[in-house]
Specification:
By secondary structure, the chain is of the alpha/beta class. The chain has two domains: 1-143, HUPs (Rossmann fold); 145-290, Rossmann fold. It has eleven helices and ten strands. The chain has helices at 15-31, 43-52, 54-76, 92-100, 116-121, 124-131, 160-170, 187-192, 197-220, 239-250, 272-280; strands at 6-10, 34-42, 82-90, 105-109, 136-139, 149-153, 175-182, 233-236, 254-258, 284-288. The protein has a ten-stranded mixed β-sheet, sandwiched between helices. Helix 11 (272-280) links the parallel strand 9 and strand 10. Helix 2 (43-52) packs across helix 3 (54-76) and helix 4 (92-100) packs parallel to helix 6. The longest helix has 24 residues, at 197-220. It is elongated.
Length: 290
């Protein structure tokens, strides 16, 4: 099964960014991957500072370079991983995206200077997560051990197989639970039309059985997953709420979810379910580009 051969961890030296770098180092060590640590200094901010305090501007760059190298040394010490540190000056999202073109996995912290909800519903992080060609791992917890329990929500779109493959790749030793949320088409109209409860309940049971069969077929098409998947969870309800509840119930330490863009326009946006999960999940979240 494919694993990630190169990782990019972007840091602004916040606590969450440090967690992201440590998680990236843990993954790199587990998979024998190379790791690049990237810090981007905002060119507009640096130019403004340079105009008023030229010496301070020079110190900012020098201190950032030193902090980045110290972080690299700390991460590689005794771990046998290969890591480089890169300092860039420019537009933050653009520089990270450019570096992401050559990485197999982008790793970022959940929060920088503002909460993830503000970032995801803002624009810098959303552009980053939606436009990066590589899968993006958003780290919310300190990296204390390898991932052990992964929740992989799927909707049977073309992205679903990629979600399962990515879940297997990011956590080679983890148990994977596949999750699907469903609603009955036209259920409200069926009630209004006076369709008996027994028929509607039968419709629900059939819909659930069809979803379970589809999950087994999909997992069966990825042989390396069969021995690692828990019993699938198929539940009726709002997808974001089902995913978050199931992550809590099964004790997931990682959710792997598709970006959910379908149209050409949506390829530059995150789906509403993905945004909700990113904002409210307690565990790490990996976003897979279809």
């Amino acid at each position: 099964m494919n694993t990630f051969r190169s990782l990019l961890a972007a840091t602004d030296f916040s606590d969450d960014a440090q967690n992201a770098c440590r998680r990236a180092a843990l993954i790199a060590g587990e998979q024998g991957a190379t790791l690049e640590l990237l810090h981007v200094i905002s060119e507009p901010s640096l130019a403004l500072l340079r105009g008023f305090f030229p010496e301070a501007a020079a110190a900012v760059s020098a201190n950032a370079e030193k902090a980045l190298e110290l972080l690299r040394e700390d991460l590689v010490a005794g771990k046998g991983i290969s890591a480089t540190s890169v300092l860039k000056v420019g537009k933050v999202a653009a520089e990270i995206l450019a570096a992401g073109q050559r990485a197999g996995l982008l790793v970022v912290g959940a929060r920088g200077h503002s909460p993830l909800r503000d970032l995801v519903l803002g624009s810098t992080a959303e552009r980053l997560l939606s436009r990066c060609p590589a899968p993006a791992l958003v780290v919310k917890r300190p990296a204390q051990s390898h991932y052990r329990r992964v929740l992989a929500p799927i909707d049977f779109s073309p992205c679903s197989a990629g979600v399962l493959a990515a879940a297997a790749a990011i956590a080679p030793g983890a148990e994977i639970q596949v999750c699907h949320a469903f609603d009955l088409p036209f259920e409200g109209k069926l009630w209004m039309a006076g369709v008996p409860d027994t028929q509607i309940n039968s419709y629900r049971v059939e819909t659930r059985q069809q979803a379970l069969a589809a999950i087994h077929q999909l997992v069966g098409s990825l042989p390396a997953l069969e021995k690692r998947t828990a019993l699938p969870a198929v539940m009726r309800g709002d997808p974001a709420r089902v995913i978050l509840d199931q992550a809590s119930t099964c004790g997931a330490d990682l959710i792997v979810i598709g970006k959910q863009g379908q149209s050409a326009l949506e390829e530059f946006l995150l789906g509403s379910v993905t945004r909700h999960v990113l904002a409210d999940a307690k565990c790490d979240v990996m976003v897979v580009n279809a």
